[in-house]
Amino acid sequence: MSKTVFPYRFPSLHTGDADAVEGALEENVSVESHSLIDEAIKAGFQQGQAEGHAQGLAQGLEEGKQQGYEQGHFAGMAASKALFEQASSPITTLVETLHNFYTQAEQQQREATLALVTRIAGLVIQHEMATQPELLLTWIEEKVANEQLMGSTFSVRVAEEDYQAIQRLAPEKIDQWTLQPQANLPRGECVIDTAEQHFDLGCQQRLDSCLSTLEQSLTTTSHEK
User: Fold this and answer.
1) How far apart are the C-alpha atoms of 140 and 95, rounded to whole Å?
2) Confidence (pTM)
3) pLDDT tops 90 at residue 103
4) Strands 190-194, 179-182: parallel, antiparallel or unpaired by DSSP?
5) Most buried of the four, 61, 172, 181, 190, by CB within 10 Å?
6) Per-residue confidence (pLDDT) for residue 87, from 0 to 100
7) How many Cβ atoms from other residues are within 10 Å of residue 204's Cβ?
8) How confident is residue 29, by pLDDT bands cut at 50, 70 and 90?
9) CA-CA-CA-CA torsion sign (36, 40, 43, 45)
10) Which segments of the chain are extended strands (E)?
11) Contacts of 176 (CB under 8 A, 6+ apart)
């Protein structure tokens, strides 16, 4: 009697219970993963917040120290400057007083020098005109020649003493120049009159020019000091 052989099939490993267990495991893993991620994010945030706070605090402290140092430095400089100005005020006043005194002394010295030179020059001129009357005669001749006055109408005014001296030295000039004595003219003064203008040949005009040059020289020397 023959037997019929049927192939044996092993039961499937994926039973309903197994699927449920696998699903539960996967769900637990997913929940735990999300929880760990959340915790990691939270921990990272807290750590970052703490580090940022510490860094910001340190930076703020450093900036505050720098700002405080700068403010203190400027305040100290201002206070020192005010104290220095207060302490040096009497010295500044003294220096200004000395400078004004020195300036006034220089001005008085210049004026005294000019006055002395003027007086001495006047005495020298009087002596020269008295001892050398030909000097005035020479000045008149040079001016008449330079201005080409010969042949034209002109006259010459001189001091009485000089008129007498020229009359002795060159009497012909009395008529040629229409020489005239003038009482109020100091010795050494001379004026040539033409129809158009007057020429001052006197010693005072020459002296004034020399004194002006001397005054400028004294003023320039004073400024250079």
Assistant:
1) 55
2) 0.46
3) no
4) unpaired
5) 190
6) 67
7) 15
8) very low
9) negative
10) 154-159, 179-182, 190-194, 198-200
11) 150
